[in-house]
Protein backbone atom coordinates (compact mmCIF):
# COMPACT_ATOMS: atom_id res chain seq x y z
CA UNK A 1 0.00 0.00 0.00
CA UNK A 2 1.24 3.45 -0.79
CA UNK A 3 1.47 4.84 2.71
CA UNK A 4 3.22 8.02 1.64
CA UNK A 5 0.10 9.37 -0.12
CA UNK A 6 -1.89 10.40 3.00
CA UNK A 7 1.33 11.83 4.49
CA UNK A 8 2.04 13.89 1.39
CA UNK A 9 -1.53 15.21 1.37
CA UNK A 10 -1.40 16.25 5.02
CA UNK A 11 1.99 17.91 4.58
CA UNK A 12 0.68 19.76 1.52
CA UNK A 13 -2.39 20.99 3.38
CA UNK A 14 -0.34 22.10 6.36
CA UNK A 15 1.98 24.05 4.09
CA UNK A 16 -0.96 25.71 2.36
CA UNK A 17 -2.50 26.72 5.67
CA UNK A 18 0.88 27.99 6.88
CA UNK A 19 1.27 30.16 3.81
CA UNK A 20 -2.07 31.84 4.48
CA UNK A 21 -1.46 32.34 8.20
CA UNK A 22 2.25 33.09 7.97
CA UNK A 23 4.08 36.30 7.18
CA UNK A 24 3.47 38.15 3.93
CA UNK A 25 -0.16 37.10 3.66
CA UNK A 26 -2.61 39.80 4.40
CA UNK A 27 -6.31 39.72 3.62
CA UNK A 28 -7.06 43.42 3.73
CA UNK A 29 -10.47 44.73 4.56
CA UNK A 30 -11.75 45.63 1.11
CA UNK A 31 -14.20 48.38 0.33
CA UNK A 32 -16.35 47.79 -2.77
CA UNK A 33 -18.23 50.50 -4.55
CA UNK A 34 -20.86 49.81 -7.17
CA UNK A 35 -20.36 52.22 -10.09
CA UNK A 36 -22.73 50.81 -12.70
CA UNK A 37 -25.99 48.92 -13.17
CA UNK A 38 -26.58 45.82 -11.06
CA UNK A 39 -25.40 42.64 -12.72
CA UNK A 40 -22.87 44.35 -14.97
CA UNK A 41 -19.93 43.69 -12.65
CA UNK A 42 -19.20 47.42 -12.40
CA UNK A 43 -17.46 47.55 -9.05
CA UNK A 44 -14.33 49.25 -7.79
CA UNK A 45 -12.50 47.46 -4.98
CA UNK A 46 -10.15 49.32 -2.69
CA UNK A 47 -7.86 48.18 0.10
CA UNK A 48 -9.11 50.11 3.17
CA UNK A 49 -5.68 50.13 4.84
CA UNK A 50 -4.08 51.72 1.79
CA UNK A 51 -6.78 54.38 1.71
CA UNK A 52 -5.71 55.69 5.12
CA UNK A 53 -2.08 56.00 4.02
CA UNK A 54 -3.11 57.65 0.75
CA UNK A 55 -5.23 60.22 2.58
CA UNK A 56 -2.27 61.25 4.70
CA UNK A 57 0.01 61.44 1.66
CA UNK A 58 -2.37 63.64 -0.33
CA UNK A 59 -2.81 66.73 1.81
CA UNK A 60 -2.39 70.02 -0.01
CA UNK A 61 0.21 72.36 1.57
CA UNK A 62 -0.99 75.92 2.19
CA UNK A 63 0.64 78.86 0.40
CA UNK A 64 3.32 80.50 2.58
CA UNK A 65 1.50 83.84 2.44
CA UNK A 66 -1.10 85.65 0.36
CA UNK A 67 0.76 87.58 -2.30
CA UNK A 68 0.08 91.25 -3.09
CA UNK A 69 -0.38 91.56 -6.88
CA UNK A 70 0.41 95.30 -6.98
CA UNK A 71 3.73 97.11 -7.37
CA UNK A 72 6.64 96.86 -9.78
CA UNK A 73 6.96 93.81 -12.03
CA UNK A 74 9.59 91.14 -11.36
CA UNK A 75 10.82 91.45 -14.95
CA UNK A 76 11.77 95.10 -14.26
CA UNK A 77 13.27 94.53 -10.83
CA UNK A 78 15.47 91.50 -11.53
CA UNK A 79 18.10 90.80 -14.15
CA UNK A 80 17.21 87.41 -15.59
CA UNK A 81 13.52 86.68 -15.21
CA UNK A 82 12.38 85.21 -18.50
CA UNK A 83 9.03 83.53 -17.83
CA UNK A 84 7.54 85.06 -14.67
CA UNK A 85 8.32 88.69 -15.52
CA UNK A 86 4.66 89.79 -15.22
CA UNK A 87 4.37 88.91 -11.54
CA UNK A 88 4.57 91.55 -8.84
CA UNK A 89 7.67 91.42 -6.64
CA UNK A 90 5.62 89.94 -3.78
CA UNK A 91 4.05 87.31 -6.04
CA UNK A 92 7.47 86.41 -7.41
CA UNK A 93 8.96 85.98 -3.94
CA UNK A 94 5.96 83.96 -2.80
CA UNK A 95 6.43 81.70 -5.83
CA UNK A 96 10.14 81.22 -5.06
CA UNK A 97 9.25 80.34 -1.44
CA UNK A 98 6.61 77.85 -2.63
CA UNK A 99 8.79 76.05 -5.18
CA UNK A 100 11.49 75.74 -2.53
CA UNK A 101 8.99 73.87 -0.33
CA UNK A 102 7.68 71.83 -3.27
CA UNK A 103 11.02 70.78 -4.77
CA UNK A 104 13.86 71.20 -2.27
CA UNK A 105 12.63 71.96 1.26
CA UNK A 106 15.93 70.86 2.81
CA UNK A 107 18.44 72.32 0.37
CA UNK A 108 16.51 75.61 0.09
CA UNK A 109 17.10 78.38 -2.46
CA UNK A 110 20.59 77.09 -3.23
CA UNK A 111 19.21 73.94 -4.80
CA UNK A 112 18.61 76.08 -7.88
CA UNK A 113 20.71 79.17 -7.22
CA UNK A 114 24.26 80.26 -6.78
CA UNK A 115 23.67 82.33 -3.60
CA UNK A 116 26.32 84.84 -4.74
CA UNK A 117 24.38 85.58 -7.91
CA UNK A 118 20.69 84.69 -8.07
CA UNK A 119 20.50 85.87 -11.70
CA UNK A 120 22.97 83.25 -12.94
CA UNK A 121 21.73 80.14 -14.73
CA UNK A 122 24.78 78.07 -13.82
CA UNK A 123 22.85 75.62 -11.60
CA UNK A 124 21.13 73.15 -13.94
CA UNK A 125 18.13 72.77 -11.64
CA UNK A 126 17.24 76.41 -12.30
CA UNK A 127 17.28 75.88 -16.06
CA UNK A 128 15.09 72.79 -15.64
CA UNK A 129 12.73 74.72 -13.34
CA UNK A 130 12.20 77.50 -15.87
CA UNK A 131 11.15 74.93 -18.48
CA UNK A 132 8.97 73.18 -15.89
CA UNK A 133 7.20 76.49 -15.21
CA UNK A 134 6.38 76.70 -18.93
CA UNK A 135 5.28 73.05 -18.87
CA UNK A 136 2.97 73.55 -15.87
CA UNK A 137 1.46 76.64 -17.49
CA UNK A 138 0.81 74.62 -20.66
CA UNK A 139 -0.86 71.83 -18.64
CA UNK A 140 -3.22 74.33 -17.01
CA UNK A 141 -3.98 76.32 -20.17
CA UNK A 142 -3.94 73.73 -22.98
CA UNK A 143 -5.11 70.61 -21.17
CA UNK A 144 -8.21 71.63 -19.26
CA UNK A 145 -9.87 68.75 -21.11
CA UNK A 146 -7.94 66.60 -18.63
CA UNK A 147 -7.01 68.64 -15.57
CA UNK A 148 -10.22 70.72 -15.53
CA UNK A 149 -10.22 73.64 -13.12
CA UNK A 150 -8.24 71.61 -10.59
CA UNK A 151 -5.09 71.94 -12.67
CA UNK A 152 -1.56 71.13 -11.58
CA UNK A 153 1.30 72.82 -9.75
CA UNK A 154 4.85 71.60 -9.27
CA UNK A 155 3.61 70.01 -6.04
CA UNK A 156 1.19 67.72 -7.92
CA UNK A 157 4.24 65.84 -9.22
CA UNK A 158 7.08 66.72 -6.86
CA UNK A 159 5.54 66.53 -3.34
CA UNK A 160 8.62 67.93 -1.63
CA UNK A 161 11.12 65.90 -3.67
CA UNK A 162 13.52 66.98 -6.42
CA UNK A 163 12.54 63.93 -8.45
CA UNK A 164 8.88 62.88 -8.34
CA UNK A 165 8.28 59.45 -6.82
CA UNK A 166 6.67 58.02 -9.97
CA UNK A 167 8.24 58.30 -13.39
CA UNK A 168 9.35 55.97 -16.16
CA UNK A 169 12.21 55.52 -18.58
CA UNK A 170 13.09 53.06 -21.30
CA UNK A 171 13.15 49.67 -19.64
CA UNK A 172 15.05 47.06 -21.64
CA UNK A 173 16.93 45.27 -18.85
CA UNK A 174 17.93 42.50 -18.59
CA UNK A 175 19.15 42.41 -22.17
CA UNK A 176 18.91 38.98 -23.81
CA UNK A 177 22.17 37.11 -24.10
CA UNK A 178 21.82 36.51 -27.82
CA UNK A 179 21.16 33.47 -29.98
CA UNK A 180 17.71 32.02 -29.69
CA UNK A 181 16.85 34.20 -26.70
CA UNK A 182 17.57 37.34 -28.70
CA UNK A 183 14.04 38.67 -28.79
CA UNK A 184 11.78 38.14 -25.84
CA UNK A 185 9.55 41.00 -27.06
CA UNK A 186 9.93 42.81 -23.77
CA UNK A 187 8.15 40.01 -21.93
CA UNK A 188 8.73 37.48 -19.17
CA UNK A 189 10.34 39.80 -16.66
CA UNK A 190 8.76 41.79 -13.84
CA UNK A 191 7.61 44.85 -15.76
CA UNK A 192 7.79 47.60 -13.15
CA UNK A 193 5.99 50.09 -15.39
CA UNK A 194 3.14 47.63 -16.00
CA UNK A 195 2.11 46.99 -12.42
CA UNK A 196 4.83 44.34 -11.90
CA UNK A 197 3.09 42.04 -14.34
CA UNK A 198 4.99 40.04 -16.97
CA UNK A 199 3.36 42.00 -19.78
CA UNK A 200 5.61 43.86 -22.27
CA UNK A 201 7.95 45.99 -20.16
CA UNK A 202 8.65 48.92 -22.47
CA UNK A 203 5.35 50.06 -23.97
CA UNK A 204 5.06 53.46 -22.30
CA UNK A 205 7.47 54.81 -24.89
CA UNK A 206 5.06 53.80 -27.66
CA UNK A 207 1.93 55.18 -26.00
CA UNK A 208 3.01 57.99 -23.66
CA UNK A 209 5.75 59.50 -25.83
CA UNK A 210 4.99 58.31 -29.35
CA UNK A 211 1.39 58.16 -30.53
CA UNK A 212 1.08 54.47 -31.33
CA UNK A 213 -2.40 53.07 -31.91
CA UNK A 214 -3.83 51.78 -28.62
CA UNK A 215 -7.02 50.22 -29.92
CA UNK A 216 -6.93 46.57 -30.84
CA UNK A 217 -10.54 45.44 -30.69
CA UNK A 218 -12.29 43.96 -33.72
CA UNK A 219 -15.97 44.64 -34.20
CA UNK A 220 -16.54 41.80 -36.64
CA UNK A 221 -16.70 38.08 -35.88
CA UNK A 222 -14.22 37.18 -38.61
CA UNK A 223 -10.91 38.92 -39.30
CA UNK A 224 -10.92 41.72 -41.86
CA UNK A 225 -8.14 43.89 -43.18
CA UNK A 226 -9.49 46.80 -41.12
CA UNK A 227 -7.90 45.49 -37.93
CA UNK A 228 -4.54 43.79 -38.09
CA UNK A 229 -3.90 43.81 -34.33
CA UNK A 230 -3.11 40.42 -32.89
CA UNK A 231 -2.18 39.03 -29.50
CA UNK A 232 1.12 40.92 -29.48
CA UNK A 233 -0.53 44.33 -29.90
CA UNK A 234 -3.23 43.40 -27.40
CA UNK A 235 -0.66 42.55 -24.76
CA UNK A 236 1.02 45.89 -25.31
CA UNK A 237 -2.30 47.70 -24.88
CA UNK A 238 -2.97 45.69 -21.77
CA UNK A 239 0.42 46.68 -20.38
CA UNK A 240 -0.50 50.36 -20.79
CA UNK A 241 -3.87 49.69 -19.15
CA UNK A 242 -2.08 48.11 -16.17
CA UNK A 243 0.07 51.23 -15.87
CA UNK A 244 -3.02 53.45 -15.95
CA UNK A 245 -4.99 51.35 -13.44
CA UNK A 246 -2.08 51.08 -10.99
CA UNK A 247 -1.30 54.78 -11.30
CA UNK A 248 -4.85 55.74 -10.35
CA UNK A 249 -5.37 52.94 -7.83
CA UNK A 250 -8.46 51.75 -9.70
CA UNK A 251 -9.80 48.68 -11.50
CA UNK A 252 -10.45 48.43 -15.23
CA UNK A 253 -14.15 49.05 -14.54
CA UNK A 254 -13.44 52.67 -13.56
CA UNK A 255 -13.11 53.36 -17.28
CA UNK A 256 -14.61 50.31 -19.01
CA UNK A 257 -17.65 48.13 -18.94
CA UNK A 258 -15.84 44.82 -19.16
CA UNK A 259 -18.64 43.46 -21.36
CA UNK A 260 -17.12 45.45 -24.22
CA UNK A 261 -13.79 47.15 -23.53
CA UNK A 262 -13.97 49.02 -26.82
CA UNK A 263 -17.48 50.51 -26.61
CA UNK A 264 -17.37 54.20 -25.74
CA UNK A 265 -21.12 54.49 -25.22
CA UNK A 266 -21.00 51.89 -22.47
CA UNK A 267 -17.88 53.27 -20.78
CA UNK A 268 -17.97 55.47 -17.68
CA UNK A 269 -17.14 59.16 -18.39
CA UNK A 270 -13.72 58.72 -16.75
CA UNK A 271 -12.56 57.00 -19.93
CA UNK A 272 -12.97 60.19 -21.95
CA UNK A 273 -10.94 62.10 -19.34
CA UNK A 274 -8.31 59.37 -19.58
CA UNK A 275 -8.28 59.64 -23.39
CA UNK A 276 -7.33 63.32 -23.07
CA UNK A 277 -4.85 62.42 -20.34
CA UNK A 278 -2.97 60.12 -22.71
CA UNK A 279 -2.65 62.96 -25.26
CA UNK A 280 -1.60 65.41 -22.53
CA UNK A 281 1.14 63.10 -21.26
CA UNK A 282 2.47 62.66 -24.83
CA UNK A 283 2.67 66.44 -25.14
CA UNK A 284 4.47 66.79 -21.78
CA UNK A 285 7.01 64.10 -22.61
CA UNK A 286 7.65 64.90 -26.27
CA UNK A 287 7.74 68.69 -25.99
CA UNK A 288 9.14 69.32 -22.52
CA UNK A 289 10.87 66.34 -20.92
CA UNK A 290 12.81 65.02 -23.93
CA UNK A 291 14.01 68.50 -24.89
CA UNK A 292 15.75 68.78 -21.50
CA UNK A 293 17.97 65.75 -22.20
CA UNK A 294 21.19 67.79 -22.63
CA UNK A 295 20.62 69.65 -19.35
CA UNK A 296 20.16 66.63 -17.07
CA UNK A 297 23.27 64.87 -15.76
CA UNK A 298 23.56 61.11 -16.34
CA UNK A 299 22.40 60.21 -12.83
CA UNK A 300 19.03 61.73 -13.75
CA UNK A 301 18.61 59.42 -16.72
CA UNK A 302 17.64 55.80 -17.18
CA UNK A 303 20.04 53.01 -18.22
CA UNK A 304 19.38 53.78 -21.91
CA UNK A 305 20.30 57.44 -21.41
CA UNK A 306 16.79 58.89 -21.72
CA UNK A 307 15.41 61.40 -19.23
CA UNK A 308 12.86 60.30 -16.66
CA UNK A 309 9.43 60.82 -18.12
CA UNK A 310 5.95 61.55 -16.87
CA UNK A 311 3.36 58.79 -16.57
CA UNK A 312 -0.15 58.79 -15.13
CA UNK A 313 1.21 58.07 -11.66
CA UNK A 314 3.52 61.09 -11.69
CA UNK A 315 0.51 63.25 -10.84
CA UNK A 316 -2.04 60.69 -9.66
CA UNK A 317 0.24 58.82 -7.19
CA UNK A 318 -2.27 56.04 -6.61
CA UNK A 319 -5.47 58.08 -6.37
CA UNK A 320 -8.23 58.62 -8.91
CA UNK A 321 -7.89 62.40 -8.81
CA UNK A 322 -4.48 63.81 -7.82
CA UNK A 323 -4.63 65.24 -4.28
CA UNK A 324 -8.27 64.09 -4.22
CA UNK A 325 -9.22 66.83 -6.68
CA UNK A 326 -8.27 69.71 -4.35
CA UNK A 327 -6.90 72.59 -6.42
CA UNK A 328 -3.90 74.67 -5.35
CA UNK A 329 -4.23 77.12 -8.21
CA UNK A 330 -6.12 79.89 -6.39
CA UNK A 331 -2.82 81.00 -4.81
CA UNK A 332 -0.84 80.73 -8.06
CA UNK A 333 -3.28 82.07 -10.64
CA UNK A 334 -0.88 84.64 -12.09
CA UNK A 335 2.14 82.34 -12.14
CA UNK A 336 0.66 79.04 -13.30
CA UNK A 337 -2.76 79.47 -14.93
CA UNK A 338 -1.69 81.63 -17.85
CA UNK A 339 1.21 81.40 -20.21
CA UNK A 340 4.26 83.59 -20.02
CA UNK A 341 6.74 83.69 -22.91
CA UNK A 342 6.90 80.23 -24.54
CA UNK A 343 10.30 80.54 -26.27
CA UNK A 344 12.68 77.66 -25.70
CA UNK A 345 16.44 78.09 -25.31
CA UNK A 346 18.88 75.90 -27.16
CA UNK A 347 19.48 73.44 -24.34
CA UNK A 348 22.30 71.71 -26.25
CA UNK A 349 24.47 74.79 -25.60
CA UNK A 350 24.06 74.55 -21.81
CA UNK A 351 27.24 74.29 -19.73
CA UNK A 352 26.51 73.58 -16.05
CA UNK A 353 28.58 75.71 -13.70
CA UNK A 354 29.38 78.16 -16.49
CA UNK A 355 26.35 79.38 -18.43
CA UNK A 356 25.23 82.66 -16.90
CA UNK A 357 22.14 83.16 -18.99
CA UNK A 358 20.18 80.62 -21.01
CA UNK A 359 18.64 82.95 -23.52
CA UNK A 360 15.61 82.01 -25.58
CA UNK A 361 16.82 81.09 -29.04
CA UNK A 362 15.56 84.35 -30.58
CA UNK A 363 17.51 86.54 -28.13
CA UNK A 364 21.03 85.44 -28.76
CA UNK A 365 22.45 85.89 -32.24
CA UNK A 366 25.02 83.15 -31.61
CA UNK A 367 22.51 80.38 -30.98
CA UNK A 368 21.18 78.37 -33.93
CA UNK A 369 17.63 78.59 -35.25
CA UNK A 370 14.74 77.99 -32.86
CA UNK A 371 14.49 74.34 -31.90
CA UNK A 372 11.69 72.31 -33.37
CA UNK A 373 9.68 72.23 -30.18
CA UNK A 374 8.72 75.90 -30.22
CA UNK A 375 5.75 74.87 -32.32
CA UNK A 376 5.08 71.19 -31.79
CA UNK A 377 4.01 69.40 -34.96
CA UNK A 378 0.25 69.18 -34.96
CA UNK A 379 -1.33 65.82 -35.48
CA UNK A 380 -4.31 66.36 -37.79
CA UNK A 381 -6.54 64.10 -35.72
CA UNK A 382 -5.40 65.19 -32.32
CA UNK A 383 -5.02 68.91 -32.92
CA UNK A 384 -5.75 71.52 -30.24
CA UNK A 385 -7.56 69.80 -27.42
CA UNK A 386 -11.05 71.25 -27.01
CA UNK A 387 -11.42 73.26 -23.81
CA UNK A 388 -14.70 71.82 -22.59
CA UNK A 389 -14.41 68.15 -21.65
CA UNK A 390 -18.18 67.76 -21.58
CA UNK A 391 -18.53 68.82 -25.20
CA UNK A 392 -16.04 66.28 -26.41
CA UNK A 393 -17.00 63.09 -28.15
CA UNK A 394 -14.19 60.62 -28.36
CA UNK A 395 -13.20 59.73 -31.88
CA UNK A 396 -15.53 57.42 -33.74
CA UNK A 397 -15.44 53.77 -32.83
CA UNK A 398 -13.93 51.62 -34.27
CA UNK A 399 -10.83 53.69 -34.72
CA UNK A 400 -9.18 53.91 -38.07
CA UNK A 401 -5.89 52.19 -37.41
CA UNK A 402 -4.29 54.53 -39.92
CA UNK A 403 -4.19 57.45 -37.45
CA UNK A 404 -0.87 59.08 -38.27
CA UNK A 405 1.54 59.02 -35.40
CA UNK A 406 2.76 62.33 -34.03
CA UNK A 407 6.50 62.03 -34.09
CA UNK A 408 8.09 63.83 -31.12
CA UNK A 409 10.09 66.81 -32.26
CA UNK A 410 13.78 66.25 -32.64
CA UNK A 411 15.81 66.98 -29.54
CA UNK A 412 17.32 70.40 -30.04
C1 LIG B 1 13.35 74.85 -7.80
C2 LIG B 1 14.26 75.87 -8.24
C3 LIG B 1 14.30 77.20 -7.50
C4 LIG B 1 14.37 77.40 -6.15
C5 LIG B 1 14.40 76.36 -5.04
C6 LIG B 1 14.45 78.83 -5.96
N1 LIG B 1 14.44 79.47 -7.17
FE1 LIG B 1 14.67 81.48 -7.47
N2 LIG B 1 14.55 81.20 -9.49
C7 LIG B 1 14.29 79.99 -10.10
C8 LIG B 1 14.05 80.22 -11.51
C9 LIG B 1 13.69 79.16 -12.56
C10 LIG B 1 14.20 81.61 -11.73
C11 LIG B 1 14.01 82.34 -13.07
C12 LIG B 1 12.52 82.55 -13.35
C13 LIG B 1 12.22 83.10 -14.73
O1 LIG B 1 13.12 83.13 -15.58
O2 LIG B 1 11.03 83.48 -14.97
C14 LIG B 1 14.53 82.19 -10.43
C15 LIG B 1 14.84 83.53 -10.22
C16 LIG B 1 15.06 84.11 -8.99
C17 LIG B 1 15.38 85.49 -8.76
C18 LIG B 1 15.64 86.53 -9.82
C19 LIG B 1 17.13 86.75 -9.96
C20 LIG B 1 17.50 87.72 -11.10
O3 LIG B 1 18.09 88.76 -10.81
O4 LIG B 1 17.17 87.40 -12.24
C21 LIG B 1 15.45 85.68 -7.41
C22 LIG B 1 15.73 86.98 -6.68
C23 LIG B 1 15.19 84.41 -6.80
N3 LIG B 1 14.97 83.46 -7.77
C24 LIG B 1 15.17 84.19 -5.44
C25 LIG B 1 14.97 82.96 -4.84
C26 LIG B 1 14.94 82.75 -3.40
C27 LIG B 1 15.11 83.86 -2.36
C28 LIG B 1 14.75 81.43 -3.20
C29 LIG B 1 14.57 80.68 -1.87
C30 LIG B 1 13.48 81.16 -1.06
C31 LIG B 1 14.66 80.80 -4.52
N4 LIG B 1 14.81 81.76 -5.48
C32 LIG B 1 14.51 79.44 -4.71
C33 LIG B 1 14.27 78.74 -9.51
C34 LIG B 1 14.35 78.51 -8.14
C1 LIG C 1 3.81 66.60 -14.67
C2 LIG C 1 4.80 66.39 -13.62
C3 LIG C 1 5.75 67.51 -13.25
C4 LIG C 1 5.43 68.81 -12.94
C5 LIG C 1 4.04 69.46 -12.95
C6 LIG C 1 6.65 69.46 -12.60
N1 LIG C 1 7.70 68.59 -12.69
FE1 LIG C 1 9.65 68.99 -12.27
N2 LIG C 1 10.18 67.08 -12.83
C7 LIG C 1 9.29 66.10 -13.24
C8 LIG C 1 10.04 64.89 -13.53
C9 LIG C 1 9.43 63.57 -14.02
C10 LIG C 1 11.40 65.17 -13.28
C11 LIG C 1 12.59 64.22 -13.40
C12 LIG C 1 13.30 64.32 -14.71
C13 LIG C 1 14.64 63.60 -14.71
O1 LIG C 1 15.29 63.55 -13.65
O2 LIG C 1 15.07 63.09 -15.77
C14 LIG C 1 11.44 66.57 -12.85
C15 LIG C 1 12.62 67.24 -12.50
C16 LIG C 1 12.67 68.52 -11.98
C17 LIG C 1 13.88 69.17 -11.50
C18 LIG C 1 15.29 68.57 -11.52
C19 LIG C 1 15.66 68.07 -10.17
C20 LIG C 1 17.05 67.48 -10.12
O3 LIG C 1 17.66 67.53 -9.05
O4 LIG C 1 17.53 66.96 -11.14
C21 LIG C 1 13.51 70.42 -11.05
C22 LIG C 1 14.43 71.45 -10.43
C23 LIG C 1 12.09 70.56 -11.26
N3 LIG C 1 11.62 69.39 -11.82
C24 LIG C 1 11.36 71.68 -10.97
C25 LIG C 1 9.99 71.82 -11.19
C26 LIG C 1 9.24 73.04 -10.93
C27 LIG C 1 9.81 74.32 -10.36
C28 LIG C 1 7.95 72.79 -11.29
C29 LIG C 1 6.75 73.72 -11.27
C30 LIG C 1 6.90 74.97 -11.97
C31 LIG C 1 7.89 71.41 -11.76
N4 LIG C 1 9.13 70.86 -11.69
C32 LIG C 1 6.74 70.80 -12.22
C33 LIG C 1 7.92 66.23 -13.34
C34 LIG C 1 7.19 67.38 -13.11
C1 LIG D 1 -8.23 55.42 -16.41
C2 LIG D 1 -9.08 54.83 -17.41
C3 LIG D 1 -8.80 53.43 -17.89
C4 LIG D 1 -8.53 52.32 -17.12
C5 LIG D 1 -8.43 52.21 -15.60
C6 LIG D 1 -8.41 51.22 -18.04
N1 LIG D 1 -8.58 51.66 -19.32
FE1 LIG D 1 -8.54 50.52 -21.01
N2 LIG D 1 -8.77 52.21 -22.18
C7 LIG D 1 -8.90 53.50 -21.69
C8 LIG D 1 -8.90 54.42 -22.82
C9 LIG D 1 -9.00 55.93 -22.72
C10 LIG D 1 -8.78 53.64 -24.00
C11 LIG D 1 -8.71 54.15 -25.44
C12 LIG D 1 -7.34 54.72 -25.72
C13 LIG D 1 -7.25 55.40 -27.07
O1 LIG D 1 -8.05 55.12 -27.94
O2 LIG D 1 -6.35 56.22 -27.24
C14 LIG D 1 -8.71 52.26 -23.55
C15 LIG D 1 -8.58 51.15 -24.41
C16 LIG D 1 -8.60 49.84 -23.99
C17 LIG D 1 -8.62 48.71 -24.86
C18 LIG D 1 -8.69 48.77 -26.38
C19 LIG D 1 -10.12 48.99 -26.80
C20 LIG D 1 -10.26 49.00 -28.31
O3 LIG D 1 -11.11 49.78 -28.81
O4 LIG D 1 -9.54 48.26 -28.98
C21 LIG D 1 -8.63 47.57 -24.09
C22 LIG D 1 -8.68 46.14 -24.55
C23 LIG D 1 -8.57 48.01 -22.72
N3 LIG D 1 -8.55 49.38 -22.69
C24 LIG D 1 -8.49 47.16 -21.63
C25 LIG D 1 -8.33 47.57 -20.31
C26 LIG D 1 -8.05 46.68 -19.21
C27 LIG D 1 -7.93 45.17 -19.30
C28 LIG D 1 -7.96 47.45 -18.09
C29 LIG D 1 -7.61 47.02 -16.66
C30 LIG D 1 -6.34 46.33 -16.51
C31 LIG D 1 -8.17 48.83 -18.51
N4 LIG D 1 -8.37 48.86 -19.85
C32 LIG D 1 -8.14 49.91 -17.65
C33 LIG D 1 -9.02 53.85 -20.37
C34 LIG D 1 -8.81 53.01 -19.28
C1 LIG E 1 -0.30 66.80 -14.88
C2 LIG E 1 -0.89 65.90 -13.92
C3 LIG E 1 -1.69 64.72 -14.46
C4 LIG E 1 -1.22 63.67 -15.20
C5 LIG E 1 0.19 63.43 -15.72
C6 LIG E 1 -2.36 62.79 -15.41
N1 LIG E 1 -3.47 63.31 -14.80
FE1 LIG E 1 -5.32 62.45 -14.73
N2 LIG E 1 -6.04 64.06 -13.70
C7 LIG E 1 -5.29 65.14 -13.28
C8 LIG E 1 -6.14 66.06 -12.55
C9 LIG E 1 -5.71 67.37 -11.92
C10 LIG E 1 -7.45 65.49 -12.54
C11 LIG E 1 -8.72 66.05 -11.87
C12 LIG E 1 -9.51 66.84 -12.88
C13 LIG E 1 -10.84 67.31 -12.35
O1 LIG E 1 -11.24 66.95 -11.23
O2 LIG E 1 -11.51 68.06 -13.08
C14 LIG E 1 -7.34 64.22 -13.27
C15 LIG E 1 -8.41 63.37 -13.50
C16 LIG E 1 -8.32 62.14 -14.12
C17 LIG E 1 -9.43 61.23 -14.33
C18 LIG E 1 -10.87 61.48 -13.91
C19 LIG E 1 -11.13 60.94 -12.53
C20 LIG E 1 -12.58 61.11 -12.15
O3 LIG E 1 -13.03 60.36 -11.28
O4 LIG E 1 -13.27 61.99 -12.71
C21 LIG E 1 -8.93 60.13 -14.97
C22 LIG E 1 -9.71 58.91 -15.39
C23 LIG E 1 -7.52 60.37 -15.20
N3 LIG E 1 -7.18 61.60 -14.66
C24 LIG E 1 -6.69 59.49 -15.86
C25 LIG E 1 -5.35 59.77 -16.18
C26 LIG E 1 -4.52 58.90 -16.98
C27 LIG E 1 -4.98 57.59 -17.59
C28 LIG E 1 -3.31 59.50 -17.07
C29 LIG E 1 -2.08 59.01 -17.83
C30 LIG E 1 -2.27 58.75 -19.24
C31 LIG E 1 -3.37 60.74 -16.32
N4 LIG E 1 -4.62 60.87 -15.79
C32 LIG E 1 -2.30 61.62 -16.15
C33 LIG E 1 -3.93 65.33 -13.48
C34 LIG E 1 -3.10 64.49 -14.20
From TrEMBL:
Biased composition (Low complexity): 359-405
BP GO annotations: photosynthesis, light reaction
GO cellular component: a single term: plasma membrane light-harvesting complex
Entry-linked CDD domains: CytoC_RC (cd09224)
Annotated keywords: Electron transport, Heme, Iron, Metal-binding, Photosynthesis, Signal, Transport
Pfam families, sorted: CytoC_RC
Region (Disordered), start-end ranges: 340-412
GO MF terms held by the record: electron transfer activity; heme binding; iron ion binding
Signal peptide region: 1-23
Highest rank taxon of the organism: Bacteria
UniProt cross-references to SUPFAM superfamilies, sorted A to Z: Multiheme cytochromes (SSF48695)
InterPro entries reported for this sequence: Multihaem_cyt_PRC_cyt_su-like, Multihaem_cyt_sf, Photosyn_RC_cyt_c-su
NCBIfam families listed in its UniProt record: photo_cyt_PufC
Function, as annotated: The reaction center of purple bacteria contains a tightly bound cytochrome molecule which re-reduces the photo oxidized primary electron donor.
Protein name stated in the entry: Photosynthetic reaction center cytochrome c subunit
Species whose genome carries this gene: Agrobacterium albertimagni AOL15
